[in-house]
Amino acid sequence: MFFNSKVVALLLAIVVGLITTAFLSLVSETPIQALITGGLISFAATYIFTFITFEFLVFKEISRIYEVLNKIRKKNFSFIEEEEDRQHRNPLKRINSEIFTYAIGRQREIEQLRKVEAFRREFLADVSHELKTPVFAAQGFVHTLLDGAIDDKKVRIKFLKRAAKSLDNLDALIHDLLTLSQIELGETKMHFEHFNIIEMASEVLDLFENKVERKGLYIGFDQEYNHPIFVYADAEKIYRVLTNLISNANKYTDEGEIILSFNVSSGGQVTVSVKDTGIGIPPEDLGRVFERFFRVEKSRAKGKRGGTGLGLAIVKHIMEAHYSKVSVISTFGKGSTFSFKLPLSKEEDLYSADDDEFGSEE
Ligand code: ADP
């Protein structure tokens, strides 16, 4: 049966009209015209009153609930804001609003849970895949040795070295995974302090100099920095960021140079950049290089250049913990520049700190 405000009003009006006429007919000598008029008036009044009441108070609200449920089903949440702001006097409308808000909240939670679940599944698959590679390789070498290769001294050394390298890769991967999960879980506490970023970058450069120069590359600063640049950050984590960025610049550069620069801005910040003349990153992948295990070209990056695929994800998290972010610009085939900003130490903070903390200045 089709129920709407018209049908309900009509039925009620007929019933009330008939009852009124029946009651009037009980009164003796009521003329027939009066009976008809009384019946019609009560019919019309009941119809109008019921129709308005149902149309504006009940059915309209019910159809709105359907409308909203339909929208939720179609994942169209455009109505949320309009609904949330309203404070209705009409109790039915208020109930409607509550239902809408509740339904939307649930829907959002479900969406969020779905995303987290998809992310978890993807992450698990990635981790298993990444762990499998070095374990299989090491396993293969060890089994080949056990199957007889151990008797040949040359092969023995070669295979043992390869097995050791695979295990080193596994160790690096587990180490990076632990670092990442600790940062994400908020277990890694940040130790903010004042330090000279130029001095730190020089240390990292020294660390890489031999390796980089053996490849025939140049590594250095864009200019001479005769004065220290003090920043307020977690020194250990920033050391890690610099190491990761310079290590990548070295890995993905076959010829040319790696240049570090520091630009102090009037806003009390310094932008640290690591620029290379390497293979670059295609524009479509630029936004994804900070994702876990993302590699521009999976086989090439893993085979020739190694790496856990977590370095930039760690860098991103560290910078977020500093309320900053790491950004990249790159021209495919020409090179990339990774930059991040750090707050400069305020002069008054430096003077109040112990001088020894900053090391010697030239
Ligand atoms: P990986 O361990 O593979 O280097 P990262 O998270 O450090 O993992 O980097 C993710 C991907 O971003 C790399 O696999 C590489 O494809 C790309 N990438 C990172 N740094 C550079 C760079 N300096 N030049 C070109 N590509 C880079």
Task: Describe the protein.
The protein is α+β, with helices and mostly antiparallel strands and 362 residues long. Helices cover 60% and strands 13% of the residues. The protein is built from ten helices and seven strands. It has helices at residues 5-26, 32-73, 80-85, 91-146, 153-185, 197-214, 235-251, 298-305, 311-321, 347-352, and strands spanning 192-196, 218-221, 230-234, 257-265, 269-276, 326-331, 335-343. The strands form two sheets. The chain has a five-stranded mixed β-sheet with strand order 2-4-5-7-6. Strands 1-3 form a two-stranded antiparallel sheet. The longest helix is centred in the first third of the chain and has 56 residues, at 91-146. The site of adenosine-5'-diphosphate has 22 residues, from helix 7 and helix 9.
Rounded radius of gyration (Å): 37 Å
**Average residue-wise pLDDT:** 87
Molecules bound to protein? adenosine-5'-diphosphate
CATH class value of the largest domain: Alpha Beta
The CATH architecture name of the largest domain reads 2-Layer Sandwich
Number of strands: 7
CATH topology of the largest domain: Heat Shock Protein 90
| Major β-sheet strand ordering | 2-4-5-7-6
Give the N-terminus to C-terminus distance in angstroms. 92 Å
CATH H-tier superfamily of the largest domain: Histidine kinase-like ATPase, C-terminal domain
Order of helices and strands: HHHHHEHEEHEEHHEEH
Classification by helices and strands: alpha+beta
Largest sheet: 5 strands, mixed
- Secondary structure tally, helices: 10
Strand content: 5-15%
Overall 3D shape: elongated
